[in-house]
Amino acid sequence: MDPLNRLLPIGMILLCIAAACSTEPTSVSQSNAPMSNAEVARGAVGSWEGTIPCADCPGIGYTLDLNPDSTYRERMVYQGRSATPFVQSGTWGVGNGRVQLKKQCTGNNQFALEGEALVMLDGDGNRIDSALADAYRLRRKSPDEPEDNPSLWREKYERGIDFAAIGNEPFWSLEIDLEKMIEFRLLDEEDGSVLTPIPVAEKPDLGEGTIYRVQTVTGNLEIRLMKETCVNTMTGRELPYMVTVLKDDTVFQGCGMYLRDSRLNGTWNLVELQGKKINPKDFDQNQPAMVIDLTEGKVSGSAGCNRITGTLEPIGDRINFGPLASTRMACPNMEVESQFLKVLSDGELRYRVGEERLELMLGGKVVAVFVRGD
Prior knowledge:
This protein is mainly beta. It contains four helices and 26 strands. It has three domains: 3-141, Lipocalin (Beta Barrel); 159-258; 262-372, Lipocalin, CATH 2.40.128. It has helices at 3-14, 37-44, 150-158, 335-344, and strands spanning 46-52, 60-66, 71-78, 86-95, 98-101, 110-114, 117-120, 137-141, 163-167, 172-176, 181-186, 194-197, 209-216, 219-231, 238-247, 250-258, 266-273, 276-277, 289-293, 298-302, 307-315, 318-321, 325-326, 350-353, 357-362, 365-372. Strands 17, 18, 19, 20, 21, 22, 23, 24, 25 and 26 form a ten-stranded antiparallel β-sheet that branches. Strands 1-2-3-4-5-6-7-8 form an eight-stranded antiparallel barrel. The chain has an eight-stranded antiparallel β-sheet with strand order 12-11-10-9-16-15-14-13, with no helix packed on it.
């Protein structure tokens, strides 16, 4: 068969034709990979790109992000046909020495790691044998921010994940939905992963944190989330929780954070702004305060004179307030109100929350302090 005639089916497979869908990755045959699954996982993490052949266009711009938390993002742009990319995401792992994307379809979901290249395989997990075979070798991109990618945390947040953690050596990930499940994943699929209903939370004897103990048919799992600054050894990023997972007799350590901290819910009265104390008696109308409703993703309250309403989205340790609408009353003292609204409008805000205190930070500096109200 002419090589070019084979490219269109391959391109169509990449789009995951619904009729070909299945829930398991295609098995790999005749694999003699010299590296272990763990070594392949370490080498594959990162962003890969290339231009793969296309039967009826100049080429397909292809980008594959393999994240250390076992998630991937695949992006394809058909050159000369449409600037709109085809994007899909999911989870990935390593089995039989091959990178496997867990797509809801058969097709090009397997890759072989060869030196500094990631080689796309055909639908059966074999190397593509054609005159254009070299075009299926993807090169590594230099990441700007290896892990501090808001879109990764956003995807988890939108799926309802309350806590997420990752670790390396070996790579593993943990996702906790406080209303449903715990999922612990290893990129080395032969070591197995665990998906289990969430058990009753326990408190540690020492320190602030949470412990989960799970007994499954595949073994025991103990998860400790300790409120202690943790530095990811691969990226250098600080996260607020030290995470330890004991799976049978193996210990995994890493860092994590709450993606949607339920303690944000409720009424918060402003007591300090830009380092200056706030006196409720200075306001003719209402003390500056906000009411956060995480279920609806909304915020309301008072800026001191005018009522405010809008949306908010906490992702990781960041909190983004959407456009805020306010009434248009004029009051004698509007300086605090103007500063307050300006703080809430900054897109780079981070937060730190406890049971009775909420701090908003900008560039590592606390810019607003609240205490819980009635």
